[in-house]
Every structure is written in structure tokens, then in C-alpha cells.
Amino acid sequence: MGKVVLVTGVARKLGSRFVRRIQHDPEVDRVIGVDAEVPEHQLGNAEFVRADIRHPMIAKVLAQHAVDTVVHMDVSGTPLGSGGRAQVKETNVIGTMQLLGACQKAPTVRRLVVKSTTSVYGSAPRDPAVFTETMPPKSLPSGGFAKDAVEVEGYVRGFARRRPDVAVAVLRFANILGPQADSPLAEYFSLPALPTVFGYDPRLQFVHEDDVTDVLVLASLDARRGTLNSGTFNIAGDGVLLLSQTARRLGRPTVPVLLPAVTWVGQMLRTAGVTDFSPEQIRLLTHGRVVDTTQMRETLGFAPRYSTAETFCDFARSRGPGLLPPDRLARTVDAIAAALPAGANRT
Length: 347
Hints:
By secondary structure, the chain is of the alpha/beta class.
């Protein structure tokens, strides 16, 4: 018999993509998708069970299907349907507690994979240039999805101590982008003009949604020779981009705002429909965040297909040209330079 994989959060695009991908692996015999909402996207041959992981009934699902691998993807910063921030937090934190309690009681469970985020490191002015997996944050996240992820990881560490026989992998993803991205940061980059903090140009990292699917599959199966797929790993594409570079590649103008007015920026973004744009998101767009991916490559044995720049370019193509398309802007600058008197552009 192959593996029986249970995946939470399959009503979301990323969860459904992963379900469709892993069910074709020869090591997998059955895939059970779980969510409180009915997925709008196809799940292939996977079996869907409508269940809310915040309720104890998730334990019955694990027992009924003799699940041996659990992939917890129902940790997100955006609500489904009409749900608000309170519902998202309950699903992230209370749902994780219920799921881990069910896994602890299920003797068949042998592997747990948890989707987390590099937001657990926070964003502060005195942060190190690059975060490794063992570095504590200078300032713990105070709210939003980032705080949820910190709590989730704490519960996962407790589970790992109580069930040392279960291989546990925590994947801390950088900001996930791609044509189907539906995160708060993707919503921010989709605005006609990008509010920025005056005087700051943070470094950002991205990971492509295709690479997210691939590394989740890698962590869900038996480790390949010479690798270890249990532990905590930073997952990000190579390189970094400055926020100013992302704006130019999108063709969108920036609207610098003085630092004391960052609260107003958050209120404006929420008014514009950017959900869960918490103070932690604003700190990211002020101070940035970069993580080290050595363990991802050398221990986990994963090499992303997309760099940070390639990931953002793929995302930008899916959003269409902005108000200031880069090629048109370049032609305009060249035309102005050519129209200037000789030597005027050298001053």
C-alpha cells in the first residue's frame, strides 16, 4: 500500500494545486482533501471531506482513512468567502491545535508537513542582514498572520516532542507569488499605485507557487538518499528585489508616505480591500526581510526553479501593464534625453 495523505485547506488555490500534484506520485495511494468550504477548483481523483479542523471531528477523519501523512496547508492570512480576520485566526490557531491533537492520538500518522512563513522572523530596523532557521527574531510579530504562524509553530514543536516517532517538517515560505497568488502582498502589488514608506526601500524575497507545490511534495514523501526532510526550512527563490524595483517592473507609480503616517497607510489599504494588511505587513514594506536558504538546498535537497526576480516577473505578467509600463517609460526617458541640447544631460 502507498501513502495515505490528508491535506487541509484544499478550498484554496494553493491547496488544490498541491492535491492535484501529489496524487500522481507513485508513492501515494490515496489523497483526502479536507476543508470547511467546498472547493471551487478541481481536486482530480482525491476524495473530498467537508470538515472544519477547528472541531474534534477531524480525529474521526484521520482514523477512518488510516492516514499516515498529514500536510497542513490551512494556515493563511486571507479569509474564504465572507469570513473575517477573527475566523482566519481561529482556523489558523484553534484549527491547528485540534489537528495536532487528532494526529497525536492517531497511531497511523508518521509524517506531518506544516506550511509556515518567514514572517515569523518579523521585520525590525536592527534585524540581521540574513535570517537563518535558528535565529530568533529581534521583535516578535504583534498581530496578523505572522503572529498566527508563530503560535502555530509553537504548537507544532510541542507535538514533535510528544510524538518523536512522527517526522515533522515546517516549511517557512517567503512571500508566495505567481499568476494565481491570492495573498495580501499580491493584493498590495495589484493596486494602481503602491504606497511606500518615505526614505525606505526594503529588500524582499519571493517564492513561486510552482516551487511551493514541488517542495511540499518533496517534504511529504520519504526522504531521498543523502537528504533529510524533517526539521525547519526557509524556502525562497535566489536573490532579492528592492521594493522600488518591483514597482518599476509592475509599471506602477509609488506614493511615498512619511513614517509617522504608516497607520494611515494600513487603514487605506484595508479600505482598498487588501485584507489582513496588519502592522507586520507594513513593517515588511519598511524594513524588508531576507532569509538564508542553505538548509533548503543542502539538507532538504531542494533547488527552486524560479529565482526571486523570475517569480516576480511571472507575477507581473499575470497582472498586465501598469500606469507606467517599463518599456514605455524607457522610451519616454530616451526621447527626453535625445531632445535635450548637447551636454545638457551631463550636468
